[in-house]
Specification:
Layout: E1 13-14, H1 17-25, E2 35-39, H2 47-52, E3 57-61, H3 65-73, E4 82-83, E5 103-107, H4 113-122, E6 129-135, H5 136-143, H6 153-161, E7 162-170, E8 175-176, E9 183-190, H7 202-213, H8 220-226, H9 248-258
Parallel strand pairs: 2-3, 2-5, 3-4, 5-6
Antiparallel strand pairs: 1-8, 6-9, 7-9
Helix pairs in contact: 4-6, 7-8, 7-9
Length: 262
């Protein structure tokens, strides 16, 4: 049985087994978590080395029915290990009840990679680690620090809760069919941030970060005014700066100032 890569699902099947093994070995079981949810296993290139480790318990989410049939018919995964659903509309309690933690891993579909990372953010209190492959540009953006043109909204939001390492780059020819771009493997490991500083909500923090970067060529004075914030609330030290110049901690301070008195 052969599984066809489907363009509308952003499928590029990994065929380089050495790359697959490196990704599987990059899972560190942070905070003792051995439950792994693989996103988009496809033909099982990463699934097999994850299982071969022997110290992980694996489940998977796969939207493509052909891939689900292949993995179960080949005995790679059993019916109760794989969920034939869309991750973006899926409730993890179906696999991990009572708020149990799980690692997210995968050769992630490039067409929804940012949305997957926003799901990880949503599940941040349950996901101690995320390891996987993204389009290189996305991987670099997530791991990048301030001062770079690729540093942006996802960088700041994810780095508030995770320590992020860019592990290695993967060439186009490692896939079938080859994508038109290189890929990058990153690892996100949950840090000690349980709540944002100064009692601010995540929704408020996200609004500030998005407002700052949505017009990234403008100074924060102008970008944040355009996003509906009062200039008088913006600390003077930040008025003439641009979003890409602020560290994650400085974004915390800026957002705290913009939420007003508590």
């Amino acid at each position: 049985m052969k599984v066809r890569a489907k363009k509308h699902l952003g499928q590029h099947f990994l065929r380089d087994l050495n790359v697959a093994r490196r990704i599987a070995q990059a899972v560190t079981k942070h905070r003792g978590c051995t439950e792994v949810l693989e996103v988009g296993p496809g033909t099982g290139a990463l699934t097999r080395p994850l299982l071969e480790r022997g110290d992980l318990t694996l489940k998977a989410v796969e939207l493509d029915e052909e891939s689900v049939d292949y993995l179960t018919s080949q005995g790679v995964l059993s019916d109760d290990q794989i969920f034939g659903v869309d991750l973006l509309r899926w409730d993890p309690n179906e696999a991990y009840p009572d708020g149990a933690p799980f690692v997210v891993a995968g050769n992630f579909p490039y067409n929804i990679s940012s949305q997957i990372l926003f799901r990880v953010l949503e599940w941040r209190d349950r996901v101690p680690e995320c390891v996987g492959m993204f389009q290189k540009e996305v991987a670099e953006r997530v791991a990048e620090g301030p001062g770079s043109k690729t540093y942006g909204i996802l960088s700041v939001l994810l780095q508030s809760y995770y320590d992020i390492d860019y592990l290695f780059t993967v060439h186009e020819q490692a896939f079938d069919p080859p994508p038109k771009v290189k890929s990058g493997v990153i690892r996100l490991v949950r840090n000690s941030m349980s709540e944002l500083p100064h009692g601010m909500s995540f929704a408020h923090f996200k609004r500030v970060v998005k407002g700052a970067f949505n017009q990234r060529r403008k100074t924060l004075r102008n970008a944040l005014k355009s996003a509906g914030f009062e200039e008088a609330q913006i600390p003077e030290a930040y008025l003439a700066k641009r979003a890409e110049q602020l560290s994650v901690d400085e974004f915390h301070e800026l957002a705290a100032a913009l939420q007003g008195p508590q």
